[in-house]
Amino acid sequence: MIKANFKITKESKLDENKKVVEKPQEQEDLTQEEFEEFVSKSGAAGSFMIFRSNKKDSELGLDEL
Amino acid sequence: MSDDLEFSISEDTLEKITTLKDQMGFTGKEWDEWFNAIVDSYSKSTKNQSKIEKVFEKNHYKSNYKNWVKYFSLNINDIWNESSARDLDLSSNSNYDPAQHSAIVIGAGPSIKKKKHLEMLAESNYQGNIVCTDRSLIPCLKAGITPDKFPNFNVVTIDPLELLKKFYDDEIVNKYGEKINGVFSTVISPVTVDIARKAGIKIHWLHSLFDYDEGEKSFNQISALIVRAKSHINGLPAIQTGGNVGTAAWFVSWQILKCSTVGLIGINHGWDEDDSWDEILAHSNAPKDIDRTTSQFQTLYPKIYNPDFDCYCIQDPTYQYYSNALKEFISRSPEWVKTINATEGGCIFGKRIISRPFKDFLNSHNN
Question: What's the complex ipTM?
Answer without folding.
Answer: 0.85
